[in-house]
Amino acid sequence: MNYSPTALLIATMDTKSQEALFIAECMKKENIPLKILDGGIRGKSPVPVDITREEVASAGGKTLTDVQNIANEGKALGFMTAGAIKCARELYRQNKIHGIISLGGSMGTTLGSGVMRAFRIGFPKVMISTMASRDTRAFVGTKDILMLHSVCDLAGLNRITKKVLGNGARALAGMLHSTEADVSSDKPLVFLSTLGTTEVCAQSVRAALEKKGKEVVIFHTVGSGGRAMEEMLDDENVTLVVDLSLHEIADNSFGGDYDAGPNRGSVALEKAIPTILVPGNIDFLVTGPLDTAKRQFPERKYHVHNAAITVVRTHQEEIKKMARTMAGLANKAKGTLAILVPLGGFSAFDSPEGPLPDPEAPELFSEVLKAKLSPDINLKLLSHHINDPEFARAIIEASYDLL
Questions:
Q1: What is the pLDDT of residue 235?
Q2: Cβ atoms within 10 A of the Cβ of 96, count?
Q3: Is the Cα torsion angle 182, 5, 101, 71 positive or negative in sign?
Q4: Alpha helices in 94-190 (DSSP H)
Q5: CA distance between the termini of the chain
Q6: Of 360, 330, 325, which is closest to residue 252 (Cα–Cα)?
Q7: 379 pairs with which residues across the strands?
């Protein structure tokens, strides 16, 4: 009832003070008080701020002079970002900020988005950036950051920058005026991974689990999706993981674009969360346009998914390596685990009607997996394709057993 939101503005005030003050004025019109954190390194802020660059540097473990004397600008920015995160978190702990807005080019975006990624999903975050029309993965990461392209350079106020900065400020104000709804739930939480090529199976599993009173969160395994799932396993009380799409592990091993990092697939097993592993989508690697795919993976079978994405058939030796990798993960599991292998094919692409069939691959995978897997792990080899109704039913039955 007494909710009165305050926003935090992060900027390098020696170069962006004019733009920052314009945002502050816009927020004032929306009845949102604003605190300003100055993350600049060179120069000085021409106006007073709430958190000075000296305080930011100190929170990052250096004096401002120390930071200024670092020859590499990236390393210097790293200390300021670490300090800004610490300062922002302390303001949040004291209930003094309820959303973040930032603006800048490559350095300002690195600073602002670096702080935003340290905050939970649902906490309002708006990044106004000259970089927002490029690949934003490094800035957004696995968090819900709203990135607004500045269109022109953020160098002074003009008819373009005023429009964009004003829209960004009003976007954050709208989020802050709408107080966060109660999203708590006492339903058992299930994490499920998938891609479009295993969507038929995923939707059947989701519907069955929801009918049984479970809350199902689906992660799209495009690299960031799998990474987000692994991170959220540390933050949420998850009762079951159905890891239906493991191709991010293949992309990490063999150089595909949907790489979720070396820890993909390990967190649930280490935390003893009941898990079902399915080698879905390991029949292909993901890369860019066809010309790029042919250079990166010569003499393969290719399928042009769209103008930007080509999928490449995995070799049988890669399939065998995936079996060894999967066995290695499973053998370290600290909790209950079931592995289901669809001998009829790993994805919609890996079927007689699909563009990248290899009928021998599932059998080769299974042979290596059985040889390397601990005998006490529940392994089921099923004759069905991964998108067959019978295979979905087998996953659903396994989930009931684990739960």
A1: 83
A2: 14
A3: negative
A4: 106-116, 137-140, 159-177
A5: 39
A6: 325
A7: 339
Residue with tokens 């709203």: 146
Give the residue carrying structure tokens 């958190």. Answer: 51
The pLDDT value given to residue 298 = 95
232 with 328, same domain: the answer is yes
Is 31 among the domain residues? yes
Residue 302 corresponds to which amino acid?
Answer: Y
For residue 295 the two structure tokens come to 């250079």
pLDDT at 286: 96
Domain residues for the domain of 301 are 189-402
pLDDT profile of the chain (403 residues), mean per 10: 85 96 96 96 94 97 96 94 98 96 95 96 95 90 95 92 97 86 78 96 97 96 94 92 97 95 95 97 96 95 94 97 97 96 97 95 97 96 98 97 91
Q: What is the CATH number of the domain that holds 225?
A: 3.40.50.12030
Put the strands of the sheet holding 34-38 in their side by side order: 34-38, 7-11, 99-104, 125-129, 146-149
Range 59-62, long-range pairs (CB < 8 A, 24+ positions): 59/83, 59/84, 59/86, 59/87, 60/84, 60/86
The reported pLDDT for the residue numbered 1 is: 47
Using an 8 Å Cβ cutoff, are 342 and 392 in contact?
no
Domain-embedded: residue 184: no
Position 295 in a domain? yes
Name the strand (E) or helix (H) holding 129.
Answer: strand 125-129
> Which of 115, 149, 177 is the C-terminal boundary of a domain?
177
147 in the same domain as 195: no
* 214-218 LR contacts (CB < 8 Å, sep 24+): 214/187, 214/188, 214/189, 214/190, 214/239, 214/240, 215/185, 215/187, 215/188, 215/189, 215/190, 216/190, 216/191, 216/192, 217/189, 217/190, 217/191, 217/192, 218/192, 218/193, 218/194
Helix (H, G, I), strand (E, B) or coil at 78: helix
Q: Is residue 183 part of a domain?
A: no
Q: What is the DSSP letter of 296?
A: H
195 and 243 both lie in a single domain: yes
Taking CA atoms, 80 is separated from 41, 56, 72, 117, 255, in Å, by 8, 6, 13, 15, 33
| Last residue of one domain, picked from the residues 177, 197, 222 | 177
| Domain CATH code at residue 17 | 3.40.50.12020
Token pair 């692994």 in the structure block, residue = 230
